[in-house]
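thread: overnight batch results

M.L. [08:02]
morning all. the overnight job finished for the chain we discussed friday. pasting input first so we're all looking at the same thing
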Amino acid sequence: MPRRAVAGPLVRKGYLPRGPALGMAKTATGGGPERMRALAASLPTRLRDGFRAGVAIAPSASGKPSSAFLVGMGGSGISSEMSRGLLEAETPLAVALVRSPELPKAVGRDSIVVLVSYSGTTWETLRAYDAAGRARARRVAITSGGTLAERAERDHVPLLTLPPGLPPRAAVGNILGGLLGLLDPWFPESNEGRLERATSRLEAAVASHARANGPAARIAERIGPRIPMVYAESTFLGLARRWKTQVEENAKRLAFMDEIPELLHNALVGWDATSRAEASRFAVVLLEWAEEATLTGRSFSYLDRLVTARGATSVRVPLAPEDRLEAIITGLSLGDHVSLFLADRRRVDPYPVEAIARLKSTLASAARR
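M.L. [08:03]
and the structure it wrote out:
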């Protein structure tokens, strides 16, 4: 299928190839819960802004690298994992995630290394940036500033600038949209129209997700005080991780994740041997896509019956049908709102992440010594 030219509502003049900045959507000026909800509501705008900026620095159609290494930690890296599922399913690009300061030996001249650090000061990402330079790989930096932006400007590396002043996890739309725009040339045809359709429908979904009696609130009610175990097919593993990390950071409680079909070869045995008393502590969240293979769909149904029989709470979450991209971004919005309703239930402020701040302070002190 031939590629369409990228034009129209998602691409406009004024973005410079060297470093397009992403517009910052308006947010509430109140406390943490209000601001986090406003940030969650801005996801469609952030995805569109990110895509435009990514397209502006995308490589030309000729001489594209055959492999991509997506480097990022924490909230800065989760978008890479979500994009990987889409890239692996729909493009010939070989994609690897790097959550480490060390790059694989396979990185070389035929590789593109995308380095994502919201703050621009993540030491693991900065070390990987230098390693990619030594390997003569093509580099792209995605950041709001800091040392990473300074090095990219110094080295004339394409730079996608994120809006400052956000919790890194709230920039997920900017980063995910940016990655999709940056890597758009590898798809059989441009995702411009596809993303416009998906984000237009997402705007209506976001309003539903935010309602006190909407699907996100009902899922949070089903999870209740139980420990969430989020399961998804391998393509949607990044989405499952996002649900997990949002519960941890926003609701300040533990959560776990696993992938299908891998867990059918190990975790299944654990569930089969779990007592009802122990299983009752867990809520198994099944992120299901209607377009998955028949055997995968049957696996979800089998898991649902098994964990329910053992006494766990099973929560089946259907993802948007037909379009994998829409399934990812709608599931992203839904999971973010679920975590905010779980924060409400626990009466905690979803905005601060003091444990991470303490860790960074400790590491900074050790480095000075």
